Amino acid sequence: MKAYRPYLWALFVLTVAVLNILDVLPDWTTFAAILTLPALSAWNCLSRRDSTSHAAG
Prior knowledge:
Layout: H1 5-21, H2 28-56
Helix pairs in contact: 1-2
């Protein structure tokens, strides 16, 4: 993962949390924002593993 991505994710989560506190967004958006980093990290890891296995074979 690039070095700046965790900071962008944190900024995104904080923005969603503040908008949730101000009752602009529904409650489920905060949970969705928090779960995006593990999901994207796993997807990135799996896609990288697939691309290296095709290059070796």
